[in-house]
Amino acid sequence: MTREEESALIRRVLAGDSDAFEPLVLENQTRVYHLALRLLGNEADAADAAQDAFLRAYTSLESFRGDSRFSVWLYRLTNNICIDVLRRRKRQDTVPLQIQDEEGEETQREIPDETWSPERLAERAADREAVRAGIETLSDELRQILLLREVGGMSYEELAKTLSLEAGTVKSRLNRARKKLCEALLQSGNFSAPPPSNKGKGV
Amino acid sequence: MENCEYFEELISAAVDGELTDREEDALHAHLEMCESCRAYYEALRAISAAAQEDLTPPPVDFTARVMARVRAGSKKKKQGKLLRFPVRSLALAAAAAIVLWAGFRVAPVFAPKGGTGASTPMMAASQVERAAGAASDEEPPQAAEENGLYAAAIPAPAAAPAEEAGDRGLSQEIAEEDAAAPEPVTITVREDAVWYNGEELSPEELEEALLRDGAPGVRLVDESADGDVYAAVLALLERLDIPVWEE
Question: What is the pTM of this model?
Answer without folding.
Answer: 0.57
